[in-house]
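Ticket 4471: requesting a sanity check on a complex prediction with cytidine-5'-triphosphate. Repro inputs:
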Amino acid sequence: MPHKPRRTALRFVVTAGPTREYVDPVRYLSNVSSGKMGFAIAAEAARQGCKVTLVAGPVRLETPAGVERVDVESAREMLAAVRKAFAGADALIMAAAVADWRPARRLAGKWRKKDDGTDRAVLELVKNPDVLATVAKRKGRRVVVSFALETGDGERRARRKMARKNADFVVLNDASALNAERSSATILGRDGSRRELIAKPKREIAAALVALVAERAQQAS
Ligand code: CTP
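Returned structure tokens:
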């Protein structure tokens, strides 16, 4: 019987959820991201036959079937996990809501209020590394997808963001996407392509995105 060449599965890295940036052992800065979009993308990619590593911030969601999950908390932990997984991958989809800032110092003990009459406190912040931009710098033929939450003239800003971060696609959504079941998204491609999905379940947006990225990754490999 003639031997049919078997295409090896594409390897996807997907990030999801918020990050936590600790102030002290019991307090942190974070955001309201639920992780649903990233988990839906990971589930779809596995369903479409990809090998998936899901780098997840702290969320209460079940690991999708067939997906390898790596749990992280901070942006710096996410960068380390993404770097490792991306080394052997074909595509990266950065759906995580990575905190842009972290406290300059993480106190070893609890941050205590002082009974000295002052009603103000100042928290010094430092910039977190940009996970996507850092790994996309030397991405070669690997496909990289950014997310962008924009208000106002979103498309122009999102396209600029895509170029600045060296991404191949950017998924543009508005703040209503956060913590919601349904979402509207516009998927913009570096090649000028544009695909608009309005008020769709996140699963449908995930399926469309995974198909686009898989097609591009296939062409590149
Ligand atoms: N991102 C990242 N590392 C960061 C911050 C963001 O990898 N430290 C990624 C996110 O996962 C997302 C994209 O970059 O894919 C979002 O870019 P960002 O510049 O943070 O844009 P917004 O969150 O939309 O906000 P702003 O325009 O205010 O920067």
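Notes from triage: The mean pLDDT is 93. Leaving this open until the requester confirms.
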